[in-house]
Specification:
Structural class: mainly beta
Largest sheet: 12 strands, antiparallel, barrel
Number of strands: 15
Shape: globular
Helix content: under 10%
Strand order of the largest sheet: 2-3-4-6-7-8-9-10-11-12-13-15
Radius of gyration: 19 Å
């Protein structure tokens, strides 16, 4: 493995630049399916990560003399305008910090941690095909409402710029087996931030397959991530969903990083509760 050099300003800048709430891929309302008219779906999802490893620019895993700890709480809500159009919002609360990095590299302790509301995301889902195979166009934006503290000075909960997503989703039942499959493939247009940095555009992808063990117990496996000229990350995500009743469900998952570039390595644990009415 490559080793972090304590006095390298470029490494400090690199680590701080990727310590962002908005960097983590996070799937909101599932797949190509849309809600019925007047139906609402909401979810509260907690993601936790603790790691001292990260992916270098060449894709290798490197270590640094500190531990990155991240606790991120996402609130999602979607509403069915009609049977083919949904609108949704995602609001994150982020708590990110480096443990002991201040003493390791001489960074002020107050700049090695940050918490607060992250960047707001909004979505519109437009169903195009509603047959055995379901196809949907998902349009999204990210508004930089979180406090932006540019690297290398400090960790930030905001990326400081607007993003716009265009995502094509296709899914369907694998009947007669109690299974489903879904694929999302999209493009993220990233705007220039207030420091003048214009980040490169990215591909967004998510493929998943699910199996209903019973009416209230679902197992799923996902492959998700982002791919750009700057940052890249790919996760394998085994997921368990338990239906408590007709409206309420609990979901647990583990995001396992399998490749990346300018991204943290290690697992991300998630637990969420969703409500539909």
């Amino acid at each position: 493995m490559n080793t972090f050099t304590p006095h390298s300003n470029s490494w400090i800048k690199f680590l701080l630049a990727i310590a962002l709430c908005a960097f983590l891929p996070h799937t909101a309302y599932a797949g190509a399916w849309t809600l019925q008219k007047g139906q609402m779906w909401s979810k509260l999802n907690l993601l936790v990560q603790s790691t001292s490893e990260h992916y270098l620019e060449n894709g290798d895993i490197g270590e640094f003399p500190a531990t990155y700890k991240s606790n991120q709480l996402f609130f999602d809500v979607f509403y069915g305008i009609n049977d083919r159009v949904d609108v949704g919002l995602q609001i994150p609360y982020c708590g990110n910090k480096f443990v002991d990095i201040a003493s390791a590299v001489g960074l002020p302790e107050e700049n090695a941690k940050e918490s607060g509301i992250g960047d707001l995301r909004g979505y519109t889902k437009i169903n195009l095909v509603q047959q055995a195979i379901v196809a949907t166009l998902k349009l999204g934006f990210k508004a930089p409402i979180g406090e932006y503290r540019p690297a290398p000075e400090a960790i930030s909960v905001s990326e400081g710029q607007w993003d716009f997503d265009v995502i094509f989703q296709i899914g369907g039942s694998l009947y007669p087996a109690p299974m489903y499959a879904n694929i999302d493939l999209g493009y993220r247009l990233r705007q220039e931030n207030e420091t003048g940095y214009d980040p490169p555009e990215e591909l967004i992808y998510n493929a998943e397959i699910g199996y209903s063990v019973t009416d209230k117990f679902l197992l799923a496996l996902k492959l998700e991530g982002i791919h750009g000229d700057d940052r890249r990350t790919t996760y394998v995500v085994p997921t368990v969903l338990i239906g408590l009743n007709q409206n309420l469900s609990i979901e647990t998952s583990m995001r396992m990083t399998i490749s990346g570039r300018k991204a943290f390595a290690g697992n991300i644990w998630a637990v969420g509760i969703s409500y539909a009415k």
